[in-house]
């Protein structure tokens, strides 16, 4: 018999932790897990899933408007969104999904403890809730506590909401300021704009979506502004004051803005506080992320970490793949590492972004000479609807090998398109392969296999 209660104990029941835990249990390990919030983690409960449902809901106003151009006798001006109904439907779906996660863990034989985990030593975890406190031991420990919204320390910051609260708003404001230029900010700007809110997005930088391809950043910004979203660049909020009618923001040293609600989406921080990590000797970097090697091992030999808490590639499918790799390595006699090249990603903005591989700027630095192909066009749907919206397709090709190393798109269905092309790029597809592939007509995706003239 083992001297420990568990072979593996997982602190955090998000996507990565659940995958690692249930797969390890499937390989024969005795697995325990603790969670002090809802099972399913950020993606399922406070991120990807509820946000995508709101994205769908908020986009229907454009579908209703466009329907008239196709002969439907609908009055777009009289169409209204019952926001509480949408929130209630979203909540019901999250309740269903949480039940699924509990079933998955139970069926796999994982013992789930309700409470917050804290390391006492390298093999001991205290799990504490409002009503109970217990100590368990494990041969190996996995930390998968994810991340949490971070906000600046400015006067009045206590008045703002984050993406967590934005998903549960009971009523819509008339005016809203969203602070931040990352993917969370632009996604919520699209959601609330589509729901009829007057949205102003405030960013410190010159442009939105730092780290994304420059053509994509410029194109999406233009499309967002066409939809009525105001984007204020190089703007810094100094303070926030609550008033009888809403909130007053002082920006850039003196200018005053008024709004009904303020949301901050200025980044996320690894959730590593009060876990006892430093006391045990686990190395934490300057961003408060847990430092791990290629096998997710921390500076303490028997303790591992993966997912957003390591601040590598903060995407749910990456955490899932990391969890699978760790389970295979520890309990399936199959040492596995994660390949982080050509990871597809999406931004569910209005319109959405699909992307695989390197940006043009990255390719120039890493690849040497490159060829760039760019196409902008009006989607076929809007030839009748008359909507002033354009799509963007972009390919980046390494000259030396002819390999397609970057693919970036803005427009309807681009996340779905990117997933398929990611397989080809992972397999090493060249521009010649793209050119030799017959396109499906009429589709937007065919543009990627018909671009012959280099833009630069």
Could you provide a short overview of the structure?
It contains 13 helices and 21 strands. With 456 residues, it is an alpha/beta fold. The protein folds into three domains: 6-47 and 86-149 and 269-331, FAD/NAD(P)-binding domain, CATH 3.50.50.60; 157-262, FAD/NAD(P)-binding domain (3-Layer(bba) Sandwich); 345-449, 2-Layer Sandwich (Enolase-like, domain 1).
Give structural notes.
With 456 residues, this protein is α/β, with parallel strands linked by helices. It is built from 13 helices and 21 strands. A hairpin with a 5-residue loop joins strand 20 and strand 21. The protein has helices at 15-26, 41-46, 48-69, 83-108, 163-166, 183-194, 214-226, 277-280, 316-331, 360-367, 381-385, 414-426, 431-436, and strands at 6-11, 31-35, 111-114, 116-121, 124-128, 133-143, 147-149, 175-179, 198-202, 230-232, 237-242, 247-251, 255-259, 262-264, 268-270, 303-305, 345-347, 353-357, 370-377, 391-398, 404-410. It folds into three domains: 6-47 and 86-149 and 269-331, FAD/NAD(P)-binding domain; 157-262, FAD/NAD(P)-binding domain (3-Layer(bba) Sandwich); 345-449, FAD/NAD-linked reductase, C-terminal dimerisation domain (Enolase-like, domain 1, 2-Layer Sandwich), CATH 3.30.390. Helix content is 32%, strand content 24%.
């Amino acid at each position: 018999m083992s001297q420990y209660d568990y072979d593996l104990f997982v602190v955090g029941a998000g996507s990565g932790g659940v995958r690692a835990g249930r797969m390890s249990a499937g390989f024969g390990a005795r697995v325990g897990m603790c969670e002090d919030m809802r099972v399913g983690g950020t993606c399922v409960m406070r991120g990807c899933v509820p946000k995508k449902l709101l994205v769908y809901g908020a986009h229907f106003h454009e579908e209703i408007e466009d329907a008239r151009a196709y002969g439907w006798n609908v009055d777009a001006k009289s169409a209204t969104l019952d926001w509480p109904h949408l929130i209630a439907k979203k909540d019901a779906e999250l309740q269903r999904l949480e039940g699924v996660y509990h079933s998955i863990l139970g069926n796999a034989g994982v013992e789930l403890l309700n409470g917050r985990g804290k390391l006492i030593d390298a093999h001991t975890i205290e799990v504490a809730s409002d009503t109970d406190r217990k100590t368990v031991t494990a041969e190996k420990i996995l930390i998968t506590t994810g991340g949490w919204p971070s906000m600046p320390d400015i006067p009045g910051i206590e008045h703002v909401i984050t993406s967590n609260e934005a998903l549960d708003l009971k009523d819509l404001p008339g005016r809203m300021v969203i602070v931040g230029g990352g993917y969370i900010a632009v996604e919520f700007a699209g959601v609330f704009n589509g729901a009829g809110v007057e949205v102003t997005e405030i960013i410190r930088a010159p442009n939105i979506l730092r780290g994304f391809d420059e053509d994509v950043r410029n194109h999406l910004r233009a499309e967002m502004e066409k939809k009525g979203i105001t984007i204020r660049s190089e703007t810094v909020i100094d303070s926030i004051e609550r008033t009888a009618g809403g909130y007053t923001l002082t920006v850039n040293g003196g200018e005053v803005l008024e709004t009904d609600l303020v949301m901050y989406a200025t980044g996320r921080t690894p959730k590593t506080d009060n876990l006892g990590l430093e006391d045990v000797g686990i190395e934490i970097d300057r961003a408060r992320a847990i430092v791990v090697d290629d096998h997710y091992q921390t500076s303490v030999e028997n303790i591992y970490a993966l997912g957003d808490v390591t601040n590598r590639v903060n995407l749910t499918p990456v955490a899932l793949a990391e969890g699978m790799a760790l389970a295979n390595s520890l309990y399936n006699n199959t040492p596995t590492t994660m390949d982080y090249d050509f990871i597809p990603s999406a931004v569910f903005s209005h319109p959405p972004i699909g992307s695989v591989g390197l940006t043009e700027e990255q390719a120039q630095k890493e690849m040497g000479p490159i060829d760039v192909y760019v196409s902008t066009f009006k989607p076929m749907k809007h030839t009748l609807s008359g909507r002033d919206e354009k799509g963007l397709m972009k390919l980046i090709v390494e000259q030396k090998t002819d390999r397609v190393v970057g693919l970036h798109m803005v427009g309807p269905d681009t996340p779905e398109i990117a997933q398929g092309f990611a397989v080809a790029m992972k397999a090493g597809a060249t521009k010649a392969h793209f050119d030799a592939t017959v396109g499906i007509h009429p589709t937007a995706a065919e543009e990627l296999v018909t671009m012959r003239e280099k833009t630069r």
